[in-house]
Automatic annotation (TrEMBL):
One GO cellular component term: cytoplasm
Skewed-composition ranges (Low complexity): 222-235
Compositionally biased region (Basic and acidic residues): 240-260
Zn finger intervals (UBR-type): 38-114
GO molecular function: ubiquitin protein ligase activity; zinc ion binding
SUPFAM superfamilies named in the record: FYVE/PHD zinc finger
Record bears the keyword Cell membrane: no
Alphabetical list of PANTHER family matching this protein: E3 UBIQUITIN-PROTEIN LIGASE UBR7, E3 UBIQUITIN-PROTEIN LIGASE UBR7-RELATED
Upper classification of the organism: Eukaryota, Metazoa, Ecdysozoa, Arthropoda, Hexapoda
InterPro entries in the record: UBR7 (IPR040204), UBR7-like_UBR-box (IPR047506), Znf_FYVE_PHD (IPR011011), Znf_RING/FYVE/PHD (IPR013083), Znf_UBR (IPR003126)
Region annotated Disordered, chain positions: 222-261
Protein known as: UBR-type domain-containing protein
Length: 411
């Protein structure tokens, strides 16, 4: 049957709802899964990477005073600041939780009350004040009507609108793994040497790979090896000429050690020639996955990274991708909420499913109207507001079904 052009297609199925839930769950698991949601991370020191928040309820001065900026871990956001106005900061590196610490003296941390040391190694950018990009605007920006993606700089960890990165042509997310903003490129000029060179360095690495015959079946060496080999019956296990399976990787490991030792003295940073100058003109740079392993690690370059406080670029576990992969692995084998809910949905009869759809659509419509009021008045939605909404919804449902059997509804 042909679908009529004026047919209403604005409906949503329960499968659509659960599919959307699965996508949201996967995103949330990637961002939050790598962090501890039950224990404050203060005692762990400066965590390599974790999800962070800024509480504007406890420290409202942070909006205008840089010295008042502070950050809290995931567990403290849930246990100590659950009804507060929080800024989601995504993830930050080398940070120690400020909840109840020197920067938040009026706050009592419920998870770790004693936090006497000052977190001197914490770094606070404008994100902790709710501002982002070179335009120094909030996100989402109520005054910005232009739809645009944002990308996080791997160095300063600030977020930038794509249109503010001084790009000659737009970049798609699938084309890169990490980004370095224009300001950080100026602050770390040695990175210019690698622009446009990563693919070339990758090819050189593949060409230099050591190949060792561990089977002893290389025909070109068979005759010579047979002539030089001692009699198998007379050769002892300690004879260095005897080939053993557990020694088969020794030549490769030895070659790798020699190469690593040599790399400390030989600089492999590409020269800043005319081609490099042409490859990088200005603004941000975008890097493919695994680019960090091609940064030179000679003594001179290592000192250069320390001077610019970017030693973490040599650590591939510092990447957001590694952090997110850890979070996804922690999800375990229990299955997603989508998979569990679809299994339960399939066990219900059609009449019950229809009742669920009706009640769900009614609830979402009412909830959308309820939240729109807060958006219009620029108010923060608290837990009490949500509880009040559902209490009112349940009361209306009970009154509408008085004298008859209640419809199926998620209670």
């Amino acid at each position: 049957m042909e679908q009529k052009e004026d047919q209403d297609t604005s409906y949503v199925t329960m499968a659509d709802i659960l599919q959307e839930q699965e996508e949201l769950e996967e995103t949330s698991q990637a961002v939050l899964g790598g962090s501890d949601e039950k224990n404050c991370t203060y005692s762990k020191g400066y965590v390599d990477r974790q999800a962070l928040y800024a509480c504007l309820t406890c420290v409202p001065e942070a909006r205008g005073d840089e010295s008042k900026r502070s950050g809290i871990c995931l567990a403290c956001s849930l246990q100590c600041h659950d009804t507060h106005e929080l800024l989601e900061l995504y993830t930050k590196r080398n940070f120690r939780c400020d909840c109840g610490g020197k920067r938040m003296p009026d706050v009592k941390c419920k998870l770790e009350p004693r936090k006497e040391e000052e977190n001197s190694r914490n770094r606070y950018n404008q994100n902790f004040s709710g501002l982002y990009c070179t335009c120094h605007r909030p996100y989402p920006d109520p005054e910005d009507e232009v739809a645009d993606e944002m990308a996080q700089c791997v160095v300063c960890e600030d977020w930038y609108h794509m249109r503010h990165l001084e790009l000659d042509e737009p970049k798609k997310e699938k084309d890169y793994a990490e980004m370095v903003c224009g300001g950080c490129m100026k602050a770390n000029p040695f990175l210019k040497h690698y622009v446009g060179k990563i693919d070339e360095l990758n090819k050189e690495t593949l060409d230099d790979t050591v190949q060792v015959d561990v089977t002893g079946l290389d025909e070109s060496n068979t005759t010579a090896a047979a002539a030089a080999a001692p009699d198998a019956d007379n050769a002892g296990p300690s004879d260095p000429k005897q080939r053993r399976l557990d020694d088969s990787k020794a030549p490769v490991e030895e070659a790798q050690k020699e190469k690593q030792a040599a790399s400390l003295d030989i600089c492999t940073m590409p020269p800043l020639c005319a081609d490099a100058e042409k490859a990088y003109k200005k603004g941000a740079t975008f890097w493919t996955e695994g680019w960090r392993k091609y940064l030179c690690q000679c003594k001179s370059c290592t000192e250069l990274y320390k001077k610019h406080s970017v030693e973490y670029l040599l650590n591939e576990k510092d990447t957001v991708k590694h952090y997110e992969d850890v979070g996804k692995q922690k999800q375990g084998t229990q299955g997603t909420a989508y998979e569990q809910a679809m299994q339960m949905l399939g066990q219900l009869d059609r009449t019950t499913q229809t009742d669920m759809f009706i009640e769900y659509n009614r609830m979402t419509s009412r909830l959308r109207e309820f939240l729109d009021q807060f958006v219009a008045n620029q108010q923060v939605v608290t837990r009490d507001d949500i509880n009040e909404f559902f209490a009112k919804l349940n009361k209306e449902r009970r009154e509408s079904t008085a004298g008859g059997p209640p419809p199926y509804f998620c209670r």
